[in-house]
Description:
The structure is a single chain. This protein is of the alpha/beta class. The protein has one domain: Spore Coat Polysaccharide Biosynthesis Protein SpsA, Chain A (Alpha-Beta Complex). Helix content is about 40%, strand content about 25%. It is built from nine helices and ten strands. The chain has helices at about 20-25, 45-55, 70-80, 100-110, 145, 160-165, 175-185, 210-225, 230-250; strands at about 1-10, 35-40, 60-65, 85-90, 95, 115-125, 130-135, 140, 160, 190-200. Strands 1, 2, 3, 4, 5, 6, 7, 8, 9 and 10 form a ten-stranded mixed β-sheet that branches. It is globular, with a radius of gyration of 17 Å.
Amino acid sequence: MHDDLVSIITPAYKAASSLPATIASVLAQTYPHWELLIADDCSPDGTRAVISEWASKDSRIRLITLPTNSGPAAARNFALSAAVGRWIAFLDSDDLWLPEKLTQSIAFAQRQRAALVYTGYRRIDAHGHRTGQYIQVPSQLTYRQLLGNTAIATSTVLIDRNQTGSLRMEQVYYDDFVCWLGILKRGLTAHGLNEDLMRYRVMPKSVSRNKRRSAGEVWKIYRTTEQLGRVAASWYFLSYAGRALMKYRKF
């Protein structure tokens, strides 16, 4: 691994319209040592062509192609298998970073000696217009605290592989949440940088807006993946749901 390099993991599916702004936000970073690995999950639109065009202009941008449409977890895993940086950052294909995102996240991770850091953010709509309040984050989260919390947004995360070792996403609905839990379950602590450094785009038909399915998938993670008893799962679920409602009120 290259010690100062950040490998940015971006799964992409039908992202031709949103990817240019996402890529531009990476190019605008004040931290220059990065590679952007965009995994195209067999998009039927012009996603692959968009990635190829940007990659031809900057060698730090790399197109990863999946052989079959396999979902975001598989796309992230394909990109992770090609990553050579010590640092792993996640950026979804419709989200944006502010210019200081990597600089501040790395400096914070080094100060805290943190395996995983996450930051605050704001929501934007499909057209990129800012809306809603700033979403603050807690200063720390342990495994048990994260079980009942929604504070870690995927596109804010930075991971130090020197501490976590190799990463791999599981084929579950919330593969990112399960990944963070797996890291913290080893006794590590996630550290929150309460700075506005990411823009989370909410699309009109976003899957994550289906609250009933989301609730069912979180419950499944508690019972199946984390193998919590019914009482413990119920306790964490109530905390998770309560915090989610509070967050969405700010949206």
